[in-house]
Amino acid sequence: MALSGLGIYKLLPKTNCKDCGFPTCLAFAMQLAAKKVALDKCPHVSETAKKSLESAAEPPIKLITVGVGEAKLEVGNETVMFRHEEKFYHPTGIGFSIEDTLSEDDMKKSIDEIKKLNFERVGQKIEVNLISVLCKSGDGNKFANAVKLVLAASDLPLALVTDDAQVMKIGLEETKGKAPLICRATKENFKEMAGLSKEYKAPLVVSAPSLEELEALIKNVNTEGVRDLVLDTGKKGLPEKIWDFTQMRKLALKKSFRTFGYPVIAFVESTNPLEEAIEATTYVAKYASIVVMKGRNPWQVLPILTARQNIYTDPQKPLQVEPKIYEIGQVTDKSPVLITTNFSLTYYTVEGEVESSKVPAFIVTCDSEGMSVLTAWAADKFTAETIAQSFEKLGLKDKVKHNEVILPGYVSVLSGKLEEESGKKVIVGPREASGIPVFLRNLSK
User: Fold this and answer.
1) pLDDT, tens digit, 9 for 90 and up, residues 363-397
2) Which CATH number is 325-443 given?
3) Pairwise CA distance, residues 130 & 158, whole Å
4) Domain spanning 5-57: which CATH class is it, in words?
């Protein structure tokens, strides 16, 4: 039975040393009971207490690692149902299926397409994480050749997909030390697959069509000594899969039901490219740890990665850029100066529009604690006083000889006060960033 916060506190040193990052041992104990911190945050807990607290310290959803090295994929270890409660920690791994029946040239082409699926958005690199090799041929040698080719051409972690344990073993021989995801163990083959998982030290997908059958299968696989698992509920419609994932997440987090305390995987079944992207995005939101799809068009993948980036951003800490003066293009001391906040999405939107104008310009990003222009203004984080202070702090006078600055149109109400505070001539710019190119070109005439 899980210990309460007070029960955990009784086993802690009770020194209130704050080395764990919390003001008291009791505060740390309450967070540990809520599964929001790990026991290793306390450097002074005794070995005896560690053994007693093992179950309390164990995360409700086990952390599973696929692959090795810098490209390894870590999934699981989540602690909340909803992002606003705290945040989600390990972003969904996005993978792509390659069949072993493809010709070598087609397979290389597919791998090259997958490797190109990386983008930059609001200053962050967003990319795909996994290649799934599907044994459609039923031939162990073909499967092994496909695995070998993928390993030679890509550093991405692998998922090996076949229900045939003998074929799986042949494929695993090519991946020694690579910790691929073994997919999959069923009620017919779980002993063989569990043995392979232990032999090759690789995580194992456990698959059954219902939660009741899956529960029984997980217990059987655990009995075989395998606990690095990823869960799958088989081929189903989107609503049924979402129901399964939600129930498993709820049982693991709210009921401390350890049997379902593992990451889950979803294989996208849609064949229509648009529907495939929609289905994959839905799985990212509810609550797949790994999503495997076939389509690899950039227009399909970018929205999925964008949704993932947004969902796995800490809602209490918006993405921010460094407050400073950014130079866009070959600026001079006569170049125009635009003002905005340091919210990443706002800055990169403004930056993109300034670049498209072909007019070199400075962008002053004021520290608004990561809020957008209107939000920061409403919260008194983007005021005439803070903007004027930014000019001084960031050294605007050393960058330009003119005395003009461009204020976002949505906060034109600040223009008079800003002139008083800064001594600058304030030009009210467009309300929307999309109006910046025309505005700057007209201004430079």
Assistant:
1) 999 999 989 999 999 999 999 999 999 999 999 99
2) 3.40.50.11600
3) 6
4) mainly alpha
